[in-house]
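Design job #97: recover the sequence.
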């Protein structure tokens, strides 16, 4: 998976993450849940932050370290195609959470 595909995957995951959160916020009240299937429920909760870190600057710094170290490992040849795809999805999720922290700093994400 070339680096361009990693970037495209990250962007796609962020878009899906943000769209799904927007739907949840409109459709499900805080602390309410809905059954998706047998044994699977979706609950609307608010995440207080990473280990209590609420500072947007600290969140951005931690995200930057995660992205930089992940890309460095990928560039140094760490893992195969599956590892690259997994890192891309994880970075997309982390980026979606960062967007939440920066746009809703008091409510988490």
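Job complete. Output follows.
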């Amino acid at each position: 998976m070339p680096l361009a595909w990693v970037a495209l995957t990250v962007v796609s995951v962020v878009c899906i993450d943000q769209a799904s959160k927007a739907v949840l916020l409109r459709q499900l009240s805080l602390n309410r849940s809905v059954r998706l299937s047998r044994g699977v429920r979706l609950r609307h909760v608010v995440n207080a932050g990473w280990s209590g870190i609420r500072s947007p600057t600290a969140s951005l710094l931690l995200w930057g370290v995660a992205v930089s170290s992940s890309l460095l490992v990928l560039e140094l040849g760490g893992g195969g195609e599956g590892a690259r795809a997994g890192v891309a999805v994880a970075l997309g999720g982390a980026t979606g959470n960062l967007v939440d922290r920066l746009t809703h700093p008091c409510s988490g994400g």
